[in-house]
Structure formats: structure tokens, C-alpha cells
Description:
Layout: H1 10-13, H2 16-23, H3 34-37, E1 45-52, E2 86-88, H4 90-94, H5 96-105, H6 107-120, H7 122-132, E3 148-152
Antiparallel strand pairs: 1-2, 1-3
Amino acid sequence: LIIVLPDMPMELRQDALLHLRNAFQHDVLQQTDSAEAGEKFKYPTLHFGWYNRCAKQGKDVPGDVDPAGHRRKGKTRSSKTAQCQPFTTEELQENAKAYTILSECFKKMFEWLAAAVQLFLPAEYEILAQYAEVLPADAHCPAYPFSNFVINFNVTTTVH
């Protein structure tokens, strides 16, 4: 899903760089010339959110069978259903403090984005919200209706 919203109010975006610097004590924000760095240059990226690591399709499985006890033909063991639950990304786990800071600092920005998506793409908003509303342990993603958000460091493109 790509939506370009060029009219975000200045008061929502003016302190974004300051918030990023506060969230990350190390010098992750740098002036970077990717052309000079070469083709193999990769800018740092952090994915904050949830993903379903081992999703099962359930095709051809009777509806009255407990997933923990189901065995596929030719297999002697059942699936490890405990491994099939959604997990937070490793980057979120390793940067929990930054995630908390950014969640609070970007709260109004995320709310504005949610309202814009709901206004311009109402059907897509409803579909996205269904996923975000069933995160494990009643977790809430600050970028609702999305179940995650990504921070790309040291990158500027025509879209950005």
C-alpha cells in the first residue's frame, strides 16, 4: 500500500529528526551520499511491529481438528503450534526503548496518518485494522491501523 500525503501539517513533522536523535543515542543519523558510497550501500532500517513467522494454510484440514494434534500424511509428529504465533520483530526487541520513545513522540503523526488513510482509503483501512486489532496479548501498534512501522535512516528520495 502506497499513499502519498504531501500536506502533513508542519507542526507534526518539524520535530521528527529531533525525536529520532533522542531515541537513538548512537550516531545513526548521518549525512550520506549513496552515489559516493557505491552500489552496495545499504541504509539502516528498523522494522517495529509484528509478523506471523510460521503461518499454516490449513488447506484440507477438517475444521473440528485441534491444530496441536493434527498430523500431516507421512509425518509422525504434529506441528509445533507454539511456534506459529505472531512475534515482534527482532529490531523491536533490540530497540524497545527507542520504540517506546518514538511511539509517544510520533503519536500525533500516526493519528493524522490513520485519519488520512481512513478518509482516502476506507475499505483498505478496515482490512488493515482487522489485523492490527488482533495482535497477541492485546498489544496495540502506535501506527494503527497498521500493525508495524518502519524507520529508514539516512535516505532521501523523491517520495520522501
